Amino acid sequence: MKKYSVVFLSTIFMGCVNVPDYAPKVDSKVASIAISSTNDSTKTTVRTLAGFVFEGKCQQFEEGTRLGNTLKNEGFQELHSAKIPAEKEITLSVIYGDARFNENRACNSTVKFSPVENHQYSAFLEVSDEGMKCSLSIQDETLKKVVSLSIPEYACEVQGVAPYKNMQPAVTEYEFKVQYR
Question: Quick one: which of 79, 103, 76, 73 has its CA closest to 92?
Fold first, then answer.
């Protein structure tokens, strides 16, 4: 398994604080999305969930990109409903992360779809195998129908295309050395 640097985890734990919220212009075509997640992680000290919307191949919208984030240590997490662009293809990234004593784990699920104006969507990220697997599904709540998604090979981060494959875990392990003097 590959180990990734703090770059990925800083995006999750700290980076999303400095990313502007998506705030559509007054005359923009928009839909709404509510994001939630469950996970089976144990022995965690904190868990986080964050949602981001991009255009093209991980490019931030001029109007912002963050849909929300939460930081708590619970198996179910949800973000408040947020506006997303409608009537064009968007890229949605939902990122789960957790911290343990000597390890951080994260899983990023990035999908593409074209929201319909004024529709309400729900996105659900299922994280399993102690944070080592994740999958994202989206339902159009207005039509009560599962949305057909395009799943790119890459994952998106606020800095652009991620250095790891979509829906694959990123693990950072720390080594501690005890010295007696």
Answer: 79
